[in-house]
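Supplementary Note 3. Input sequence used for the single-chain structure prediction.
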Amino acid sequence: MKRNLLIFIMLLTIVGFSRAQVISDFEVIHMNLMVGGATDLSKITVVPNPDPSGINTSGWVAKFNRSMNGVPWGGFWCPLPVAVDVTVNKYVHVKVWKPRISTVKFKLEGGAAGTLEIASMNPQTTTGVWEDMVFDFTSKTGTYPIIAFMPDFMDPVGLTEDIVIYFDDIVVNNDPTPGSAPAYVMEDYEQIPLNLMTGDPVIDLSSMIIVGNPDPSGINVSNYVVQFFRDMDGVPWEGFWSPTPVDVTTNKYMHVKVWKPRLSPIKFKIEKPGENHEVLSMNAQTIINGWEDIVIDFSAYSGEWTVIAFMPDFADPVGLTEDITIYFDDIILNNDPNPIQPTVEVVLSVDMHGAGLALAQPVYFAGDFGGIYGTWNTPGDNPENELTDADGDSIYSVTMDLLEGNYQYKFFKGAGWDGGEWGGDPNRKITITGPGEFLFKWGKKPANVTFNLNVKGSGLAGEEIFTAGNFGGIYGTWNTPGDNLNNMLIPQLPLTDSIYSITMTLDSIGVYQLKFFKGAGWGGGEWTGDPNRVYTIRQDTTFSLKWGMKYPEGTNELSLAGYVQTYPNPVKDVLNVTTSIELNRVVITNTVGQVVYSQDAFGVGRKAINVSDLSTGMYFITFYGKSGGQYTQKVLKY
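The predicted structure, written as discrete structure tokens, is reproduced below.
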């Protein structure tokens, strides 16, 4: 259920201040069947009340198909979403409809006061009518997270044919009187009315019931869904209508998850006295035998509508040679036209060796993941954002269900913003394209690097410019040019300068190799084969480069040291620079990264830099080679 909650909360987050209307999610308590061997074909579904009379005129009830080959204790057990408390309210009531008289039992499990399985205090007296069965738990107190219900406890079972039992309204109060008002409702099985729209009732045997999700995967891992048995002799507009009000003034898009064995049009309809509108889904179905979020656009309309209708298989003619089964779920109205995408399981880990973590100090992340993980929640405020070290190896992990996409985040020691890996930017960045495990080292800081590429004279004819390299993270490792839009360079103004740029936040400082490409595919490279461009990133850096200019062999950042000399060092007033390779730029920064001197088009030869106005202390001087290399030295000013 955690993943369902994530998707639903993300849905609410996306629509901003417009609150989504959940028309129906068709969920009930998770009834786990208690059955016997392979010949016991018992099952439980939720169906329209077959006998809305007497004490039970509700719309929906649970149907227990009890196999004659079943066991005496046939029924269900359920882990409750909220534990039932019998401290004050001591009596459990269940309405039953049975074709024979037999013992009815109820069980409470998992409480501190111990398990108790008891028969109803009022024995069943009638058949074929609704009767309220009451169970006395006055001997117990406290909360119980698990219940079990056995509506036909006959030992031996004694059946010669299968039978059908119905039950409804599992409630708790402190009154042993049958039919007394509930204090708390565990389950009433109520859903919106699904009035079938079918053809000739003699030949069209279509039906709708609520069943366990037959394919809990992708965007829908919920417990229960609607099963639409579609008769091949049905009509194109087959489906349901329901007197359920919806307001499309603010929320304009109807979402329905569908699972279908064939591709066909899907329609939704809104009605009110004197007016109705039947609309095709704005996104055509593309998946067979899998869950897909179908969206219907009602942005052309406004106000409240009193009736809805859904037609999940509007093929005209119907064109079936056999009956088919369709499932649908989660009818939601919101203001987001985008279909829900499936989440993937991601394990995010951080190696805390040497991080100075105090005894029992927790580790958190904060980021823009959204959903149950929030958007930059203060570390410590959201328990979903805590990483744990289960095996004591100092690697802290969290398992997350995420939509595919790009995210930013940071790790923190302890509660609050002060315990971050570093102050300020950059954030860590990650791209999720499928299930995976990601391990990072605490405090290993990402770096922002900008590549300004001059493509003048390259013969560019409208192609896009990409880079490919061993960057990792959201930029991939040697992704085919054009496949990853994170690697596309953007033309800068004025366009006559022919400068294309990309700023990348790399996972960490280090040595990177890359090349530039015109258009998609490997055929548009600056040159064929080796060498790759090589750059060492030690801090936030900008490179000004020329398309197709191979720097001299060995001239990367590591070997630029052989082409550039500075003296004296330490220096008082004038720092002399001698370079045998052309430099695009020289930059001096202080220890906190502030630029205190810069000069573009530095050129070749010997030049003097006046540093007399600088305060005493340590500085960094960085040289940017025209061929692409980069080199940084420490300089002491006295």
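Confidence is low (pLDDT under 50) at residues 1-17, 552-558. The CA atoms of residues 336 and 465 lie 33 Å apart.
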